[in-house]
Structure formats: C-alpha cells, structure tokens
Specification:
Blueprint: E1 6-12, H1 14-17, H2 24-40, E2 44-47, H3 49-55, E3 66-73, E4 78-83
Length: 88
C-alpha cells in the first residue's frame, strides 16, 4: 500500500480545553504535533505559523474545540502541517 503525500484530518482538542487557561494554546499545539507524529511515524513535524492563529482565534485562553489540518510530506520522515481554510 502506497503512502499518501497529502492528507487531511480533523483533530479534537478536548484535552487542551479541559486544562488550565494559561496553557491551553500551547497544549493544543503539542497535541497536534503528537497526533501527526503518531499517525505518520514522523521524526520531525513542522508547523505552519498560521496554524497557531487558527487554533487560538478567540485568544489563547479560548481555543477551538476541533481543528482541520492538511499534512504534507516534505522529506523522508518530515511532515508539514497547515490549517485547512474554507473558501466561500
């Protein structure tokens, strides 16, 4: 079975929302990194700077409950994570 180079997925950030207010945004970013590393067996996960703004769109204490991301394979075990932005 051939591995996909581009992949979209939705990540639930409930664990980050239930935590303390001052670490919610940072914990959400760590959850995204850990999930991508686990699913794709990645050694290095590179995050797009726009992803941080999408996660904490209402402030760093009021984060979104779910985020949709696009994962792109860059190198051997390196993956780039970008937010999926709706175009209406």
């Amino acid at each position: 079975m051939k591995e996909k180079d581009n992949f979209e997925m939705t990540i639930n950030l409930r664990r980050a929302i239930m935590g303390k207010r001052n670490v919610r945004s940072r914990r959400a970013i760590n959850i995204i990194k850990e999930t991508v590393a686990r699913h794709f067996n990645a050694e290095r996960v590179v995050l797009d700077p726009m992803l941080n703004q999408v996660v904490s769109i209402n402030g760093r204490e009021k984060i979104q409950s779910k985020v949709k991301i696009a994962v792109t394979k860059v190198g051997e075990k390196t993956f780039l994570v970008r937010p999926v932005i709706k175009s209406e």
